Amino acid sequence: MDAEKSKFELLAQIMAVDFMIEDLQLYLDTHPMDREAIVKRNSYVMQSKMLKETYNRLYGMLSENDLSPFPWNWIEEPWPWECEANPKLYGEDR
Q: Where are the domains of the chain?
């Protein structure tokens, strides 16, 4: 279960960082001259890239657009509607 917990913790980090990227992009749509916001956004983009590379290396493809090892393993992950893909439901009584 610790491996699954680590997997979900890494996914939670990725989601949080990607949310910050989206939030800053919306802010920059109305404040395009805010240099500090651009620097923060770029920092989060780099952090997201590193987290996603770590996830791909440890657990497989995060999205169908990632590089795939041989054989194609995108279909091996649980689908979003399956309990195993949802950290809040995983491990609960079904």
A: 2-85
